[in-house]
UniProtKB/TrEMBL annotation:
Coiled coil: none annotated. Gene3D superfamilies: 3.40.50.360. This is ACP phosphodiesterase. GO terms for cellular component: cytosol. InterPro entries: Flavoprotein-like_sf, FMN_Rdtase-like_dom, NAD(P)H-dep_reductase. It comes from Tsuneonella aeria. SUPFAM superfamilies: Flavoproteins. Residues 4-148 form the NADPH-dependent FMN reductase-like domain. One of its GO terms (molecular function) is FMN binding. It holds the Pfam family FMN_red. It comes from the Bacteria.
Length: 184
């Protein structure tokens, strides 16, 4: 069986190592996973007054893309030991209106990538906490706190180290198995 996986990258910048990591994961994934990158940079800040007046087009577009997917993969940097504001906003947008969360029940996994040694642990865990509240089954193992992010990829996003490639392979294979086990 094949599954549609929405990919949400927490960084907005063009040369993002998190985006490179997400792209690398999609290239390693088993063929039964189809990926769609769902962009978050154009989402207005969540505001209940705006919701009441009528959802802006980017909110609707984002909600529809998440709703149409079977699973969601998050790859995010850490900002100030937490999730970047743009990503938190996307989660808030997708979770509403109340009772109509686009995320509910969808299998998910989190990878965090940082140039530092802690590998975005703080962001990763804050994000996991939100995903628990959103009632998404979160892949438990392997955890993916990827440090040394600026040394991972060479030309065209090729892995510089075989150990990194193997780690990414194990992660995406585990997520594929998790989706098969938990998807609606
Ligand atoms: C950072 N960075 C960072 N790194 C980290 O490991 N822990 C942190 O708490 C922070 N805090 C932080 C705050 C802000 C506002 C910025 C802009 C950056 C550094 C961050 O990991 C680095 O810029 C990465 O390259 C960001 O990921 P992308 O954009 O390359 O995917």
């Amino acid at each position: 069986q094949s599954y549609k996986v929405a990919v949400v990258v927490g960084s907005l910048r063009k040369e993002s190592v998190n985006r490179k990591a997400a792209e690398a994961l999609t290239r390693l994934a088993p063929e039964n996973l189809q990926f769609e990158f769902v962009e978050i940079g154009d989402l207005p800040h969540y505001d209940e007054d705006v919701e009441a007046a009528g959802a802006p087009a980017p909110w609707t577009r984002f909600r529809e893309q998440i709703s149409a997917s079977d699973a969601v993969l998050f790859v995010s940097p850490e900002y100030n030991r937490s999730v970047p504001g743009a990503l938190k906003n996307a989660i808030d947008v997708g979770s509403r209106p109340y009772g109509e969360s686009a995320f509910a029940g969808k299998p998910t996994a989190v990878m965090s990538v940082s140039p530092g040694g802690i590998g975005g642990f703080g962001a990763n865990h804050h994000l996991r906490q939100s995903l628990v509240f959103l009632d998404m089954p979160v892949l438990q193992q392997p955890e993916a706190y990827v440090g040394g992010g600026y040394e991972l990829f060479g030309e065209q996003g090729a892995f510089k180290s075989d150990d990194t490639r193997k780690f990414f392979q194990g992660f995406i294979d585990a997520f594929a198995a998790w989706i098969a086990k938990t998807a609606a």
